[in-house]
Design brief:
16 helices; alpha/beta; single chain; about 350 residues; TIM Barrel; 8-stranded parallel beta sheet; binds 5'-deoxyadenosine; globular; binds FE2/S2 (inorganic) cluster
């Protein structure tokens, strides 16, 4: 599929045509990654962040959230719940928190790998080569870092430098691959200023990077952020601006599946936030094969406010698990067993 065709699908409005897209994505999903929906237990370990990303509620400039950092004991409590619930993976996520030291995180990763059968995914932002390498050596299996948009100018507008150091997430993604991590990335859909051409290029980049995991979700304005306050002013001309809608998110999930048939693709919380009733199920029926039940203690949930009105902030880990199991069964799929690593594929020979 070339750029023009991708844009054609992104702009497609006719329901009968879109049915064909959903069908193809669902077929490819079944053929390449099967009927299993893998559960990744999400632990939001800290909401401290030293960056100023214009879209994110955790940005250092937002004084209206209560900051927390979980203790090692609290984290292990969540990890043990993941084991008890039969999840294959825990995902440790945080803002870019310098209070999370290389050594501290290393200890946690090592303990999880030693004491449990779980795969460990980290999603801790842009960290140094030494940190990433140490965590990999300690046993971390996967790393998630969205590149947010492939349009460099737009990226720089919404993602200020840190101490004058220009961030290059693509370089970090390549480094992670070299280190032997399974690598996940993704974008936000409908960032003010994001054009059809940009989004099509994002999807092509998923393929070119040969990503193991692809996470996408709609941009949701947060009033405590510059992008959230000035959405209207920053939009591209009407005919060019990608809308941050639920439908657009399904299209991107489906196209990601078609261009990257073997990737693990989650049906994300941001999607559930737009449609709590059936967003997750529709994502799973249109290319996705992963969901991420939240394990974060309820006391901290609401404070991990990347964007407002996030779905499921009052549910306990047990509630999340029951709810997702029911949703997966309702669409005739099964809960995955084991770690749910990227399926065997030709690129493995490339990588190792
Ligand atoms: N709306 C939607 N997604 C957001 N993210 C950050 N801020 C927002 C927002 N306002 C996404 C980014 C980030 C991930 C952790 O959450 O893509 O990489
Ligand atoms: Fe950068 Fe939140 S401000 S991840």
């Amino acid at each position: 599929m070339d750029r023009k065709e991708i844009i054609g699908w992104l702009r497609e409005e006719r329901e009968e045509k879109l049915c064909g897209l959903w069908y193809e994505a669902d077929e490819l999903r079944r053929r390449h990654v099967g009927e299993e929906v893998h559960l990744r237990g999400l632990v939001e370990i800290s909401n401290h962040c030293n960056r100023e990303c214009h879209y994110c509620g955790l940005r250092v400039g937002n004084r209206n959230i209560r900051r927390y950092r979980m203790t090692a004991e609290e984290i292990m409590g969540c990890v043990n719940e993941a084991v008890e619930y039969g999840y294959g993976t825990v995902v440790m996520q945080s803002g870019e928190d310098q209070g999370i030291s290389k050594e501290w995180m290393e200890g946690i990763v090592r303990q999880i790998r030693r004491e449990t059968p779980l795969a460990v995914t980290l999603s801790l932002g842009e960290r140094s080569e030494a940190d990433l390498d140490a965590w990999r050596q300690a046993g971390a299996n996967r790393y998630l870092l969205r590149f947010e948009t492939s349009n460099r100018a737009l990226y720089e507008q919404i993602h200020p430098t840190l101490n004058g150091r220009r961030s290059d997430r693509l370089e970090i993604l390549r480094m992670l691959t070299r280190m032997g991590y399974e690598v996940g990335s993704g974008v936000m859909i409908g960032i003010p200023g994001q054009t059809w051409e940009d989004l099509a290029a994002d999807i092509e980049l998923f393929r070119d990077l040969d990503l193991d995991m692809i996470g996408v979700g709609p941009f949701i304005p947060h009033p405590g952020t510059p992008l959230g306050r000035d959405v209207e002013k920053l939009l591209a001309p009407v005919s060019e601006q990608v809308p941050a809608t639920e439908l657009m998110t399904y299209k991107v999930i489906a196209l990601a599946r078609i261009l990257c048939p073997e990737a693990n693709i989650p049906s994300t919380t941001a999607l559930a936030t737009l449609n709590l009733a059936e967003g997750r199920e529709l994502g799973l029926s249109r290319g996705a094969n992963i969901v991420m039940p939240n394990l974060t203690p309820v006391a901290y949930r609401a404070d991990y406010e990347i964007y407002p009105a996030k779905a499921c902030i009052r549910e306990t880990a047990e509630d999340c698990r029951t709810c997702l199991n029911r949703r997966i069964a309702s669409i005739g799929r099964q809960v995955g067993k084991g770690k749910g690593s990227r399926v065997n594929n030709s690129s493995l020979t490339k990588r190792f």
